[in-house]
Fold these 2 entries.
Entry 1:
Amino acid sequence: MKKTSKQLWIPILAACAMFAQSAAPRPAFDAFEVATIKPATPGTGRFIKMQTAHMFFAKNHALKTLLAAAYNLSPQAISGGPAWVESDHYDILAKAPNEIRPNLDEQMAMLRRLLADRFKLAFHREPKELSIYALTVAKTGPKLKPSAASPDAAPEGPPPLIFVLSPQGVSLPGRNATMSELASVMQRAALDRPVVDKTGLTGRYDFDLAWTPDEIQFDGLGLRETPESTNPGLFTAIQQQLGLRLEAAKGPIEALMIDHVERPSEN
């Protein structure tokens, strides 16, 4: 039976009102409920991830690389503090509050609070001219697929970019990722200088990147020899596989200068 717009109007309004009443605001993730910080075992891998929906795990990180992750910086943009800021490595296991999984931004906000509380961290920002990599579009154009994910997908869940390290080399499966996020993850973990997104691409994309790392990337964490890898180096791979380029340049960076820090308090 054909319905008129008048017949449909009231039910639609009622359904919208019911949805508005039932939608709950996202809870705040101000700080971890509890966290343990222990010296890391030398020679182990390094990562930051949610082990479960509520357990945050940072493995084998120096304070400098924790700061790089927490404040979305290249480690080269962080200076100051005693030598142990780079030499001492820690494992951090922390419990997130609330009933839902925190997204990456929420995890980093809680990590920033943890570093301030447990390491007694104080710092200031300072502009610096540093060697950088500019992420640009290659002359052949980008080879990126618009993301298949819904634009209103839930914010909780794993981050869109996670490195996979193996004897075959490094792979980076990107899902629903932006070019800004690609530049960010490259500068925080893979490369030895800041990476600035200059692609001008504003969408979210799905892609797969695979390459053979050199002795500089990932701080050389056991990746100097990858005998099973047949993939090209990163600079060639990113152009061939993604239609992008990493170009060496100089550029202004807002650096982080450590004013005060202490070894972490007892658990």
Entry 2:
Amino acid sequence: MFVKKIIIVAILTFAACSIARAQDSRAVSFDRSWLFKKDALKNAESPAYDDANWRSVTLPHDWSIEDLPNQKEGEVQGPFTKASVGKAATGFTEGGVGWYRKYFILNKNTSGKRHCLLFDGVYMNADVWLNGHHLGSHPYGYTSFYYDLTDYLNPAGKVNVVAVCVKNIGKTSRWYSGSGIYRHVWLLTLNPVHTKIWGTYITTPQVSKDKATINIQNSVENKSTVKRTISIKVELIDPTGAIVAAQKKNLTVPPDTSADLAQTLKTSNPKLWSLENPLLYKARVTLTDGSKITDQTLTTFGIRSLKFDGQKGLLLNGEAVKLKGGCVHNDLGPLGSASIDRAEDRKVELLKRAGYNAIRLSHNPPAPEFLNACDRLGMLVLDEAFDMWEKAKNPEDYHLYFKDWSQKDLESIILRDRNHPSIIMWSIGNEIYEAPDSSGYRNAKRLADEVRGLDPTRPVTDAIVFLPPYTKKPWADYEPHVANLEVDGYNYFLDKSAFFQRDSATQHRFETERAEHPEKLYMSTEYLPAAALENWDEAEKYPWFLGGFCWTAMDYIGEAGIGRPLLFPESQKLPKGLMAMGFFYKDSWPVFNADCGDLDLIGNPKAASYYKNVVWRNSKIEMLVHKPIPAGMKELAAPWGFPDERKSWTWPGQEGKMMQVNVYTRSKTVRLELNGKVIAGQTVPDGSITATFNVEYQPGTLVAKAFDGGKEKGASALSTAGKPAAIRLIADRKTIKADQNDLSFISVEIIDDKGNIVPSVDGLEVRFQLTGNASIAGVGNGDPADMSSFQQYHKKVYWGKALAIVRPSGIKGSANLSATVEGLKPGHIQIIMK
């Protein structure tokens, strides 16, 4: 058994290349063939420990999304359990303790080199051993960290074992975090003289259409015992692959220390990074000692000017940009938090397609691949560090480690990510409890100063909320805190929701603050979906109000039910104000996701997405139909949600009954036509974009048309689908790479005999069969209350749709997926893996 493990490691670790794009170009993937066991074990760090009964997993890995044993109806479903410590907050998932082990051997040609092990992220409290030697502990689940293995490695040709213990115990988070080594792991083999990990820093201080100045600072480490004078050559490679500038300088580095060297290069007619054309350059840095190349790195960056002007707002390449932003959490739906590259790419693609140009990372730094996707696709990013400082939001959360670790973690975040052109701001916190206290003032200044010391090119912000329990102190007590920020981020300050019951002075606090600080900039770091219009109107009105980020752009596991609408008897008095919010958490089982996203858990647009695209002027008109409310009942829309509206005119059983139809448009008048006949018209109220109609349901085609001055500006149509006839499978990509970091996301649709999706179909279970060199990595739907497995080869459709995610095994070839439902024509699709 022991020998077999060595052979597997020798083949997979060093022979099989990964498509994963490492944050360091020198890194080799260390993801494959780890052993795993979920248990609080003793002595598992010892090389002699018997792990014969452990199972093999491929990283990234999230154990909290895996099916739980001993399924009990009503108590445990799929990966969800009522015994979850985090309950609704973490989506009824289970943390605990998990152990990972990996065997590997080094080649003889690595003799005399340094070896480092780099973790992109482990949730949380990771302890790492090499051959029984404790390398260190890392509490924060969202920051990258690395260890130098060199002093504890066995000689080349002999077996080494890495052991990692992960402890997600107690209430560590307010949302679903996942558990385990859920991001990539990398092995770096370096010569004694090398560029430090995260040691290249690139800025573009002068940018125009005609020319650009690029500063490249390189931090070189000398781990030898003698002083070395090396040559550092920097080459700029443009998006076509051409070298457009180069420079070489010498640097002397004393033994066992490091030294920095800055070089300035210029290029003509630069290809600028922008939202529409996110063109990327590379900087190749080569270290030469005499005639021998000792190190080479390749760092991706963008040439773009970024300016925050107190009068003009956010300027990207000299052009004003308003933030059409959304907040996102860390997870990837049916994959949990396992950061598989293609899933991160797709998430950004979906958000950009939905009209977003900016993302706020809430409330933690992301996987590197997410930022790489934002760079490639043209998405602005607000990178956020912490959800709490010294005061707890949960008993076992990061507040336990903040004093000792916040500086190290902030350094990890900024050094790792500061070359990403997509990042435009750093946030040091979210809704910090001690913001109006002396410790909040002290930490705000310290963190802001640390950010500016590491990256002075971007402004510092954080998210302030002025609601209970935060309003126990007057606003004047917050002033010393926000004085440390260049951009003030406000949560829910413009929202008029009855849940918040705020006075007008509080609601428009940003206007008062601007009058007192005329050089500052402001934005909504969070706002409710129903407040999108008022937030955007303010952004269009004031150059210094940058726009903002809705809560939230995409559904996520955890904070279960905060967006779901609830039904109450008409006779029941509805809860008001903040007291009502508890109803959306209370007894939310089996609801496991927040249900507050513009997109659902598998990426389909929901009502708030269509509404927001009219708000942002991306769409001229959108029409949605409210789901019928049972007789004798009334709906209470959640503060973070939206009324239960659907883009559908397929409502079997509702014939002859009245349906509420909402038409969203910025035009002045709206006309409705049903089956070719005009049935209603309406003037859109001033200050609104909503025209509401009550329409007697008849199957056919319902059309809404928008007019200004008698001229038609746009139309939206919905047609009734027929009876379910077949299953249609549509892959986002039918040809993918034969690598476990690539995925094919396959939409499952129930269609009628004319090929129309039948949105009224709900609860039909689709069974999947897959043959070939692949597996199903996850299945899902948009139902926030479907707790069935994400990993079994079957899933119910929700509003006519589901999703299957196909993952290659690493071998070239093809995979054939079939989907069946009794009585329907099955669906088939082939995925090619090259």
